[in-house]
Amino acid sequence: MDLAFFTPALSLSLGDIAEAAGVSVPDGFDRGLLIAGAAPLESAGPADLAYMDNARYGEALAATRAGACLVSPRFAARVPAGTAALVCRDPYRVYAGILGRLHPDAMRPGSLFGASGVSAGAHVHPEARLEENVRIDPGAVVGPGAEIGSGSAIGPGAVVGPGVRIGRDSSIGAGATLTHALLGNRVIVHPGARIGQDGFGFAMGASHLKVPQVGRVIVQDDVEIGANTTIDRGASRDTVIGEGTKIDNLVQIAHNVVIGRHCVIVSGVGISGSTTLEDYVVLGGQVGVVGHLRIGRGSQIAGSSNVNRDVPPGSRWGGTPAKPVRAWFRELTTLARLAERGAEPPERES
Protein backbone atom coordinates (compact mmCIF):
# COMPACT_ATOMS: atom_id res chain seq x y z
CA MET A 1 0.00 0.00 0.00
CA ASP A 2 1.07 3.61 -0.55
CA LEU A 3 2.29 5.01 2.76
CA ALA A 4 1.49 8.53 1.53
CA PHE A 5 -2.18 7.62 1.86
CA PHE A 6 -2.23 4.88 4.49
CA THR A 7 0.44 5.20 7.14
CA PRO A 8 -0.06 2.65 9.94
CA ALA A 9 -1.12 4.30 13.17
CA LEU A 10 0.80 1.75 15.23
CA SER A 11 2.70 -1.52 15.11
CA LEU A 12 1.33 -4.68 16.66
CA SER A 13 3.26 -7.65 17.93
CA LEU A 14 2.62 -11.18 16.78
CA GLY A 15 1.33 -11.82 20.29
CA ASP A 16 -1.16 -8.94 19.99
CA ILE A 17 -2.52 -10.35 16.73
CA ALA A 18 -2.74 -13.89 18.10
CA GLU A 19 -4.67 -12.58 21.10
CA ALA A 20 -7.10 -10.72 18.80
CA ALA A 21 -7.62 -13.95 16.85
CA GLY A 22 -8.13 -15.95 20.04
CA VAL A 23 -5.27 -18.35 19.23
CA SER A 24 -1.78 -19.10 20.48
CA VAL A 25 1.46 -18.04 18.82
CA PRO A 26 2.88 -21.10 17.01
CA ASP A 27 5.92 -22.79 18.52
CA GLY A 28 9.21 -21.39 17.31
CA PHE A 29 7.92 -17.86 16.68
CA ASP A 30 8.67 -14.76 18.75
CA ARG A 31 5.58 -13.22 20.39
CA GLY A 32 7.34 -9.85 20.24
CA LEU A 33 7.79 -9.88 16.44
CA LEU A 34 6.50 -6.51 15.19
CA ILE A 35 3.87 -6.51 12.46
CA ALA A 36 3.92 -3.05 10.92
CA GLY A 37 1.37 -3.46 8.16
CA ALA A 38 -0.95 -5.72 6.19
CA ALA A 39 -0.56 -6.90 2.61
CA PRO A 40 -1.83 -9.49 0.09
CA LEU A 41 -0.24 -12.93 0.16
CA GLU A 42 1.70 -12.23 -3.04
CA SER A 43 3.42 -9.04 -1.88
CA ALA A 44 3.56 -9.45 1.91
CA GLY A 45 6.98 -9.30 3.57
CA PRO A 46 8.35 -10.45 6.95
CA ALA A 47 6.80 -7.47 8.78
CA ASP A 48 3.35 -7.88 7.18
CA LEU A 49 0.15 -9.68 8.13
CA ALA A 50 -1.82 -11.53 5.44
CA TYR A 51 -4.91 -13.73 5.50
CA MET A 52 -6.24 -16.65 3.46
CA ASP A 53 -9.62 -18.43 3.42
CA ASN A 54 -10.24 -19.10 -0.29
CA ALA A 55 -8.98 -22.13 -2.23
CA ARG A 56 -8.23 -19.97 -5.26
CA TYR A 57 -5.24 -18.53 -3.45
CA GLY A 58 -3.62 -21.79 -2.42
CA GLU A 59 -0.54 -21.27 -4.57
CA ALA A 60 -0.10 -17.71 -3.31
CA LEU A 61 -0.31 -18.99 0.27
CA ALA A 62 2.35 -21.62 -0.33
CA ALA A 63 4.72 -18.97 -1.73
CA THR A 64 4.00 -16.10 0.68
CA ARG A 65 6.75 -14.35 2.64
CA ALA A 66 4.36 -12.79 5.17
CA GLY A 67 5.51 -12.65 8.78
CA ALA A 68 2.13 -13.95 9.90
CA CYS A 69 -0.96 -15.26 8.16
CA LEU A 70 -4.49 -15.64 9.49
CA VAL A 71 -5.71 -18.86 7.93
CA SER A 72 -8.69 -21.20 8.22
CA PRO A 73 -7.98 -24.75 9.44
CA ARG A 74 -8.34 -26.46 6.05
CA PHE A 75 -5.49 -24.42 4.55
CA ALA A 76 -3.16 -24.36 7.55
CA ALA A 77 -0.89 -27.10 6.20
CA ARG A 78 0.03 -24.94 3.18
CA VAL A 79 1.48 -22.07 5.21
CA PRO A 80 5.28 -21.86 4.61
CA ALA A 81 7.59 -22.73 7.51
CA GLY A 82 8.82 -19.12 7.80
CA THR A 83 5.31 -17.68 8.25
CA ALA A 84 3.48 -17.84 11.58
CA ALA A 85 0.19 -19.62 10.89
CA LEU A 86 -2.58 -18.14 13.06
CA VAL A 87 -5.29 -20.72 12.54
CA CYS A 88 -8.78 -19.40 13.23
CA ARG A 89 -12.36 -20.00 12.11
CA ASP A 90 -12.96 -16.64 10.42
CA PRO A 91 -9.63 -15.23 9.18
CA TYR A 92 -11.18 -12.46 7.08
CA ARG A 93 -13.19 -11.04 9.97
CA VAL A 94 -10.17 -11.10 12.30
CA TYR A 95 -8.05 -9.52 9.55
CA ALA A 96 -10.61 -6.72 9.15
CA GLY A 97 -10.44 -5.96 12.87
CA ILE A 98 -6.62 -5.86 12.85
CA LEU A 99 -6.60 -3.67 9.73
CA GLY A 100 -8.94 -1.24 11.49
CA ARG A 101 -6.46 -0.92 14.36
CA LEU A 102 -3.54 -0.35 11.98
CA HIS A 103 -5.43 2.15 9.80
CA PRO A 104 -8.23 3.81 11.78
CA ASP A 105 -8.23 6.71 9.30
CA ALA A 106 -9.45 4.31 6.59
CA MET A 107 -12.54 3.36 8.55
CA ARG A 108 -14.56 6.43 7.61
CA PRO A 109 -14.13 9.69 5.71
CA GLY A 110 -12.45 12.36 7.78
CA SER A 111 -11.35 15.92 7.18
CA LEU A 112 -9.64 16.20 3.78
CA PHE A 113 -8.17 19.50 4.88
CA GLY A 114 -6.66 18.29 8.13
CA ALA A 115 -9.16 20.53 9.87
CA SER A 116 -9.73 20.74 13.57
CA GLY A 117 -12.97 22.52 14.33
CA VAL A 118 -14.70 24.72 11.76
CA SER A 119 -12.47 25.79 8.85
CA ALA A 120 -12.41 29.44 7.89
CA GLY A 121 -13.79 28.60 4.45
CA ALA A 122 -16.85 26.79 5.79
CA HIS A 123 -20.26 28.47 5.96
CA VAL A 124 -22.10 27.63 9.19
CA HIS A 125 -25.36 29.45 9.87
CA PRO A 126 -25.49 31.22 13.26
CA GLU A 127 -28.58 29.22 14.17
CA ALA A 128 -26.91 25.87 13.55
CA ARG A 129 -25.94 23.94 16.68
CA LEU A 130 -22.64 22.08 16.83
CA GLU A 131 -21.40 20.01 19.74
CA GLU A 132 -17.72 19.95 20.68
CA ASN A 133 -15.14 18.30 18.42
CA VAL A 134 -17.06 18.73 15.16
CA ARG A 135 -14.80 19.15 12.12
CA ILE A 136 -16.04 21.07 9.07
CA ASP A 137 -13.91 21.44 5.93
CA PRO A 138 -13.71 24.46 3.60
CA GLY A 139 -16.66 24.96 1.29
CA ALA A 140 -19.09 23.02 3.44
CA VAL A 141 -22.45 24.64 4.16
CA VAL A 142 -24.47 24.05 7.33
CA GLY A 143 -27.95 25.56 7.31
CA PRO A 144 -30.08 27.16 10.02
CA GLY A 145 -31.34 24.86 12.74
CA ALA A 146 -29.03 22.03 11.69
CA GLU A 147 -27.56 19.99 14.54
CA ILE A 148 -24.28 18.04 14.38
CA GLY A 149 -23.08 15.76 17.17
CA SER A 150 -19.66 15.52 18.76
CA GLY A 151 -16.94 13.70 16.80
CA SER A 152 -18.64 14.13 13.43
CA ALA A 153 -16.84 15.38 10.31
CA ILE A 154 -18.31 17.28 7.35
CA GLY A 155 -16.23 17.09 4.16
CA PRO A 156 -15.44 19.91 1.72
CA GLY A 157 -18.36 21.08 -0.37
CA ALA A 158 -20.89 19.06 1.60
CA VAL A 159 -24.29 20.64 2.30
CA VAL A 160 -26.20 20.04 5.53
CA GLY A 161 -29.61 21.58 5.00
CA PRO A 162 -31.88 23.47 7.40
CA GLY A 163 -33.05 21.40 10.34
CA VAL A 164 -30.99 18.35 9.42
CA ARG A 165 -29.72 16.42 12.43
CA ILE A 166 -26.53 14.35 12.42
CA GLY A 167 -25.61 12.23 15.42
CA ARG A 168 -22.23 11.70 17.02
CA ASP A 169 -19.11 10.23 15.36
CA SER A 170 -20.67 10.40 11.90
CA SER A 171 -18.91 11.30 8.65
CA ILE A 172 -20.33 13.19 5.68
CA GLY A 173 -18.11 12.90 2.61
CA ALA A 174 -17.06 15.61 0.18
CA GLY A 175 -19.84 17.02 -1.96
CA ALA A 176 -22.64 15.09 -0.28
CA THR A 177 -25.98 16.83 0.27
CA LEU A 178 -28.41 16.21 3.12
CA THR A 179 -31.84 17.80 3.36
CA HIS A 180 -35.00 16.84 5.28
CA ALA A 181 -33.06 14.10 7.06
CA LEU A 182 -32.31 12.81 10.54
CA LEU A 183 -29.14 10.74 10.88
CA GLY A 184 -28.12 8.67 13.89
CA ASN A 185 -24.73 7.98 15.43
CA ARG A 186 -21.73 6.55 13.56
CA VAL A 187 -23.36 7.04 10.17
CA ILE A 188 -21.02 7.17 7.17
CA VAL A 189 -22.13 9.02 4.03
CA HIS A 190 -19.58 8.77 1.22
CA PRO A 191 -18.81 11.56 -1.27
CA GLY A 192 -21.49 12.69 -3.68
CA ALA A 193 -24.41 10.97 -1.95
CA ARG A 194 -27.77 12.75 -2.10
CA ILE A 195 -30.12 12.25 0.81
CA GLY A 196 -33.53 13.85 1.27
CA GLN A 197 -34.27 15.30 -2.16
CA ASP A 198 -37.70 15.07 -3.79
CA GLY A 199 -39.15 11.67 -4.43
CA PHE A 200 -40.47 11.11 -7.96
CA GLY A 201 -44.15 11.86 -7.45
CA PHE A 202 -46.62 13.11 -10.06
CA ALA A 203 -50.37 12.90 -10.58
CA MET A 204 -50.36 11.74 -14.18
CA GLY A 205 -52.66 13.27 -16.77
CA ALA A 206 -52.62 15.38 -19.89
CA SER A 207 -50.13 17.44 -17.93
CA HIS A 208 -48.33 15.80 -15.00
CA LEU A 209 -49.02 17.54 -11.70
CA LYS A 210 -46.17 17.49 -9.21
CA VAL A 211 -47.07 15.98 -5.83
CA PRO A 212 -45.22 17.76 -3.00
CA GLN A 213 -42.96 15.39 -1.08
CA VAL A 214 -43.39 16.27 2.60
CA GLY A 215 -41.81 13.30 4.38
CA ARG A 216 -38.28 12.86 5.71
CA VAL A 217 -35.37 10.43 5.52
CA ILE A 218 -34.55 8.63 8.77
CA VAL A 219 -31.11 6.98 8.87
CA GLN A 220 -30.52 4.94 12.00
CA ASP A 221 -27.24 4.21 13.81
CA ASP A 222 -24.25 2.52 12.12
CA VAL A 223 -25.55 2.84 8.57
CA GLU A 224 -23.06 3.27 5.71
CA ILE A 225 -24.17 4.92 2.44
CA GLY A 226 -21.97 4.65 -0.66
CA ALA A 227 -20.75 7.32 -3.05
CA ASN A 228 -23.32 8.86 -5.40
CA THR A 229 -26.20 6.93 -3.86
CA THR A 230 -29.54 8.73 -3.73
CA ILE A 231 -32.19 8.32 -1.03
CA ASP A 232 -35.41 10.26 -1.68
CA ARG A 233 -37.42 11.70 1.17
CA GLY A 234 -40.88 10.34 1.78
CA ALA A 235 -43.97 11.63 0.03
CA SER A 236 -46.24 11.69 3.08
CA ARG A 237 -44.44 9.26 5.40
CA ASP A 238 -40.74 8.77 6.02
CA THR A 239 -38.13 6.89 4.04
CA VAL A 240 -36.29 4.79 6.63
CA ILE A 241 -32.88 3.09 6.57
CA GLY A 242 -32.54 0.64 9.46
CA GLU A 243 -29.71 0.24 11.94
CA GLY A 244 -26.49 -1.31 10.66
CA THR A 245 -27.56 -1.46 7.00
CA LYS A 246 -24.75 -1.14 4.42
CA ILE A 247 -25.52 0.47 1.05
CA ASP A 248 -23.01 0.40 -1.82
CA ASN A 249 -22.28 3.12 -4.39
CA LEU A 250 -24.79 4.20 -7.07
CA VAL A 251 -27.95 2.88 -5.43
CA GLN A 252 -31.36 4.53 -5.89
CA ILE A 253 -33.83 4.33 -3.00
CA ALA A 254 -37.18 5.94 -3.74
CA HIS A 255 -39.70 7.71 -1.51
CA ASN A 256 -41.44 5.89 1.34
CA VAL A 257 -39.09 2.90 1.13
CA VAL A 258 -38.49 1.22 4.49
CA ILE A 259 -35.28 -0.81 4.83
CA GLY A 260 -34.81 -2.95 7.91
CA ARG A 261 -31.78 -3.54 10.10
CA HIS A 262 -28.48 -4.99 8.87
CA CYS A 263 -29.47 -5.24 5.23
CA VAL A 264 -26.84 -5.28 2.45
CA ILE A 265 -27.61 -3.47 -0.82
CA VAL A 266 -24.98 -3.77 -3.56
CA SER A 267 -24.11 -1.26 -6.30
CA GLY A 268 -26.59 -0.44 -9.03
CA VAL A 269 -29.72 -1.49 -7.14
CA GLY A 270 -32.94 0.45 -7.72
CA ILE A 271 -35.78 0.20 -5.18
CA SER A 272 -39.09 1.73 -6.21
CA GLY A 273 -41.37 3.67 -3.90
CA SER A 274 -43.18 2.29 -0.84
CA THR A 275 -41.35 -1.03 -0.87
CA THR A 276 -40.33 -2.63 2.44
CA LEU A 277 -37.21 -4.71 3.05
CA GLU A 278 -37.33 -6.56 6.33
CA ASP A 279 -34.21 -7.17 8.46
CA TYR A 280 -31.11 -8.91 7.04
CA VAL A 281 -32.16 -8.76 3.39
CA VAL A 282 -29.37 -8.93 0.78
CA LEU A 283 -29.84 -7.46 -2.72
CA GLY A 284 -27.09 -8.31 -5.24
CA GLY A 285 -25.75 -5.81 -7.76
CA GLN A 286 -28.17 -4.25 -10.25
CA VAL A 287 -31.29 -5.75 -8.69
CA GLY A 288 -34.47 -3.87 -9.56
CA VAL A 289 -37.42 -3.90 -7.16
CA VAL A 290 -40.93 -2.82 -8.19
CA GLY A 291 -42.83 -0.52 -5.84
CA HIS A 292 -45.20 -1.44 -2.99
CA LEU A 293 -43.61 -4.87 -2.37
CA ARG A 294 -42.36 -6.61 0.77
CA ILE A 295 -39.14 -8.63 0.80
CA GLY A 296 -39.14 -10.89 3.83
CA ARG A 297 -36.57 -11.11 6.60
CA GLY A 298 -33.27 -12.74 5.65
CA SER A 299 -34.09 -13.10 1.95
CA GLN A 300 -31.36 -12.95 -0.70
CA ILE A 301 -31.88 -11.75 -4.28
CA ALA A 302 -29.27 -12.64 -6.92
CA GLY A 303 -27.58 -9.88 -8.88
CA SER A 304 -29.33 -8.43 -11.98
CA SER A 305 -32.70 -9.87 -10.93
CA ASN A 306 -36.01 -8.06 -11.23
CA VAL A 307 -38.42 -8.43 -8.31
CA ASN A 308 -42.07 -7.84 -9.18
CA ARG A 309 -43.88 -9.65 -6.34
CA ASP A 310 -43.55 -10.15 -2.60
CA VAL A 311 -40.72 -12.41 -1.43
CA PRO A 312 -41.34 -14.70 1.57
CA PRO A 313 -38.93 -14.54 4.53
CA GLY A 314 -35.75 -16.59 4.24
CA SER A 315 -36.01 -17.00 0.47
CA ARG A 316 -33.28 -17.11 -2.17
CA TRP A 317 -34.57 -15.76 -5.47
CA GLY A 318 -33.09 -14.83 -8.84
CA GLY A 319 -33.93 -14.14 -12.46
CA THR A 320 -36.20 -11.83 -14.44
CA PRO A 321 -38.84 -11.89 -13.18
CA ALA A 322 -37.34 -13.16 -9.93
CA LYS A 323 -38.43 -16.55 -8.62
CA PRO A 324 -37.08 -19.14 -6.16
CA VAL A 325 -33.56 -20.14 -7.20
CA ARG A 326 -34.42 -23.80 -7.81
CA ALA A 327 -37.14 -22.83 -10.28
CA TRP A 328 -34.79 -20.28 -11.84
CA PHE A 329 -31.99 -22.83 -12.27
CA ARG A 330 -34.42 -25.37 -13.79
CA GLU A 331 -35.58 -22.71 -16.21
CA LEU A 332 -32.01 -21.84 -17.23
CA THR A 333 -31.08 -25.53 -17.63
CA THR A 334 -34.14 -26.20 -19.77
CA LEU A 335 -33.43 -23.21 -22.02
CA ALA A 336 -29.80 -24.31 -22.42
CA ARG A 337 -30.88 -27.83 -23.45
CA LEU A 338 -33.40 -26.47 -25.93
CA ALA A 339 -30.75 -24.19 -27.41
CA GLU A 340 -28.35 -27.12 -27.80
CA ARG A 341 -31.01 -29.18 -29.56
CA GLY A 342 -31.79 -26.32 -31.87
CA ALA A 343 -28.11 -26.07 -32.83
CA GLU A 344 -27.89 -29.75 -33.89
CA PRO A 345 -28.06 -30.32 -37.69
CA PRO A 346 -31.23 -32.08 -38.88
CA GLU A 347 -30.97 -35.79 -39.63
CA ARG A 348 -30.68 -36.67 -43.32
CA GLU A 349 -33.41 -38.71 -44.90
CA SER A 350 -32.31 -42.10 -46.19
Structure described in brief:
The chain is α/β, with parallel strands linked by helices and 350 residues long. It is 13% helix and 25% strand.
How would you portray this structure in words?
By secondary structure, the protein is α/β, with parallel strands linked by helices. It has a domain of 95 residues: Udp-n-acetylmuramoylalanyl-d-glutamate--2,6- Diaminopimelate Ligase, Chain: A, domain 1, CATH 3.40.1390.10. Helices cover 13% and strands 25% of the residues. It has four helices and 38 strands. Strands 9-12-15-18-23-26-29-32-35-37-38 form an eleven-stranded mixed sheet. It starts with 11 loop residues before the first strand and ends in a 7-residue tail after the last helix. The relative contact order is 0.06. The mean pLDDT is 95.
**Spatial strand arrangement across the major sheet:** 9-12-15-18-23-26-29-32-35-37-38
What's the CATH H-level homologous superfamily of the domain at 12-106?
A: MurE/MurF, N-terminal domain
How would a textbook summarize the main sheet? Answer: 11 strands, mixed
Q: Give unreliable regions as ranges.
A: none
Helix count equals: 4
CATH domain class name of the domain at 12-106: Alpha Beta
Rg calculated over all Cα atoms: 25 Å
User: Beta-strand level of the residues, as a percent range?
Assistant: 15-25%
Instruction: Return the CATH topology of the domain at 12-106.
Output: Udp-n-acetylmuramoylalanyl-d-glutamate--2,6- Diaminopimelate Ligase, Chain: A, domain 1
